[in-house]
Amino acid sequence: VANGPIEAKLPGALPFTIAELEREIEQAKPELELEAAVVESSLTVEQRQVRPMIGPRLVKGGLTLLALLFALLAQMGFVNNGVEPGAGLRSLVMSAFFLLLLWGYGRAANGSRNARAFSFPRLQAIPRQRLLYVPALFLSLIALTSSNAGRAWLALFLWFVAIALALFALWPVPKPAPSLDADNTPSAFIAGGLFVMALLLRTINLQNLPFILNGTEAGVGLEVLRVAQGGLAAPFGSSALGSPTLPLFLLALPLKWFGPSTVSIRLLSPLAGALTVTAVYWIGERLWGRAAGLAAAVLLLTGHLHLHYSRMGLTSIWDGLLALLALGLIGVAWQGQRDGRANGVTWLLAGTAVGLCAYFFIPALLLPIMLAALFLLLFWADRANLRAQWRQILATGALALVIALPQLLHNRSQPNSLWQQWQAASILNPSVDWLAQEAARTGQTESAMLRQQVWRGLLAFNGSADKSPSYRTQSALLSFVPGLLFLLGLLLALFRLRDVRALLLLVWVGVTLLFTAVLIPDAPQSHWLVIATPALALLGGFALVTLAQWQGMAPRTALVVALVIAALLAVGDGVYYYGRFPAENQFADRNTEVANDIANYLNTLGADWTAYFYGPPQMYVDFPNITFLAQDFHKNENLFDVSPAPDDALPPVSSARQVFVFLPERANEMTAVQSLYPGGEVRVFDGRYANPLFYSYEIGN
User: Fold this and answer.
1) Domain that residue 612 falls in
2) Taking the C-alpha atoms of 77, 81, 83 and 89 in order, what is their torsion angle to the nearest 10 degrees?
3) pTM for the complete prediction?
């Protein structure tokens, strides 16, 4: 037994590299596998080899046949109809899709290094709930059949069931666990506050700002009224205006409750606008951080372009909301800020928004182009993430297909497609040589006119005043400083071309400017451009925060600075819209104001009056505002046009109480009416576009 420690010399330390350590681990692996094999072989449980239900050859053969079939259909479409090759192009895209699947399957079967990313799951491994996707598609088809038969509520019920079934079928397995992220209470309070402020700003004085019902609003109102009265019972169809009918069913709810009025047709637009402001904050926070999201939301809060269309009885304001949810949620899902299961839910939410875009005119046109451009750029910029998330992307597309299928199939059956309507309104209209006509009208060369058109379109937000009859503001669609921030945001996004957050904003704005400004005559037409307003705000907020951070500011300081600047700009836009814009008085025109005020005047009289309108040939009693607002008066029943002399004979009187309405240019005919019906009362109505706006002569009051 030693009385103390025994000295022993240990070998000196031998340094090693990581590569040497990994090599030693690799050499030890066969021993572990051998041991596992021995343990496994000692088990007495009988193991049966499961054969795949579909062999690789059958899969490859099936994909090859499908690719060839669609290529054949494409070739037949090109040969039979080379002028309108749309059907052939669609078949060619489907052929490319099956070729891509065949390529991916072949790489997986050959053991490519990317095989794991693109490997096809065995049928036995597919969760049973996925099989419910097939009946979801079937129900979506039946919904279209019910819509075509005029069974609106049955069609909508089947459609909602199909969506719910598709969501359940495609829901991530296992179920998403509760989020373990940091406390989101501040974000929830901020979002709630933004929503309340945005809603208040968009509903205050809704009746009188804009001061009259625009003619386009009244036209939409007449279609919505058809839905409310049961005259239009196809939710998956096309209205008389050429746009999808489903949004009209949503707008019909206030009309059913409150009747036709300026407020009822405008009532849902403030809600859509407020939701957009809230969604800009939520998505901006997840993409760029709280400071950028909050600054962007404040910029949009009173941005006069967005504020105006949030108060109009049109569906334009929904365009920006749906595009924001579709593209923004794709960006959030792509970033993978949550765990994989929650990320799958975000993809499905994006798919829901993508599918709903098929029911709104501008998103139905532009979103497919935006998505194609975005994923092509992502294939170049972030191919690894594309491989990692292809299953979620496929689920997103599958859900969008179930949601959009009824409208897509209806559109295919229509002779005048959405794209043909766009082409008729663009400079590419084949029946109008726009470039030659403009060159002849202005005396400039065609190349000079084309350059002017391109620049005018690219500067649609920053350049000249709006030419749309739905707004017609006398300033640019973006005020000076917000326009400056938008340009800086574009430049900063161009510096980050491999960042999905920058790419989706660039694609969003670029596609919008090309198809709704550069290729549209008399640009800018603001009602085409509302879809991009959330992107403008996000670019502005991103620019504000980035510039603040580049000055070395701490995150909290950058947030305060960006928020203060955004708030000052918001106040400026609010002062313009609520102050200068009504004073400029360029909204709508004289005839629209006449029709609006005549309708309001007739409503004060009641259905027991007969009205005669001395308006032709300038305007007639079937002006949309009169037809929509004056529901107690009907053309050729108790409301009549009176033609100019000598065809000015009055129709037979249908009531003892009569009113004669005269435009100023026909006021000289009032004397003859007074001589025929003496003892009446003359009233003069003034307006913003004319004083007097019109006269009335009442008898029997």
Assistant:
1) 590-699
2) -10
3) 0.84
